[in-house]
């Protein structure tokens, strides 16, 4: 069976989601997948970015990284989407990218793939679950297969999010990822690759 093709497509303002995406990329490779790591385009005006030092620094650090295209979704057997929470919803940058996929959706090119999501907020009840559920509304319209981690491993009782993987960044938006999040990210990537591999095998 050919290697599973995994795309990790994300938006990150200050770097947390970027860090999670990199961990998922490495875990996907360890699981035997061919992985593309792609960020979506920044839409915010320069003055908004410049008003936040962490945002400005992250923008500068990642401005030369590959940008996501529709082909990165079409190519993949599995896609992991990442977004910080914006009022309990997906960030406009990732939503705009999803909204450009209409031609591929109409052709059925987004269906029958495995999808899951990851997110971060400053507070523990800051909209993590609603953001992932909102993301999955789009996946349902794609005809995609949501492979959320659920409680399929005891480690999920530590990180506590059956809908995907999430992280609390704290009041200063700088709390680092912990072993619990790393384990949860590894588990989600491995599970997504495994299920996508089974689907390929049944093709």
Automatic annotation (TrEMBL):
GO terms for molecular function: NAD(P)H dehydrogenase (quinone) activity. It is an enzyme of class 1 (oxidoreductase). The keyword Oxidoreductase applies. Keywords: Oxidoreductase. InterPro entries: Flavodoxin/NO_synth, Flavoprotein-like_sf, Flavoprotein_WrbA-like, FMN_Rdtase-like_dom. Residues 6-193 form the Flavodoxin-like domain. Its EC number is 1.6.5.2. It comes from the Bacteria. The keyword Ribonucleoprotein does not apply. Belongs to the WrbA family. PANTHER family: FLAVODOXIN-RELATED PROTEIN WRBA-RELATED, FLAVOPROTEIN-LIKE PROTEIN YCP4-RELATED. This is NAD(P)H:quinone oxidoreductase. The gene is wrbA.
């Amino acid at each position: 069976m050919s290697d599973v093709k995994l795309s990790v497509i994300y938006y990150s303002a200050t770097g947390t989601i970027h860090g999670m995406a990199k961990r998922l990329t490495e875990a996907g490779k360890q699981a035997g997948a061919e992985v593309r790591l792609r960020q979506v385009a920044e839409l915010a005006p320069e003055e908004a970015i410049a008003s936040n030092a962490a945002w400005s620094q992250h923008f500068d650090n990642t401005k030369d990284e590959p940008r996501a295209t529709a082909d990165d979704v079409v190519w993949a057997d599995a896609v992991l989407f990442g977004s910080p929470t914006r009022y309990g919803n997906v960030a406009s940058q990732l939503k705009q990218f999803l909204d450009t996929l209409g031609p591929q959706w109409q052709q059925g090119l987004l269906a029958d793939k495995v999808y899951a999501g990851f997110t971060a907020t400053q507070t523990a009840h800051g909209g993590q679950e609603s953001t992932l559920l909102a993301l999955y509304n789009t996946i349902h319209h794609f005809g995609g297969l949501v492979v959320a981690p659920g409680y399929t491993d005891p480690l999920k009782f530590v990180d506590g999010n059956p809908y995907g993987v999430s992280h609390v960044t704290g009041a200063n938006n700088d709390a680092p990822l912990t072993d619990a999040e790393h384990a949860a990210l590894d588990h989600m990537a491995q599970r997504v690759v495994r299920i996508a591999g089974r689907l390929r095998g049944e093709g």
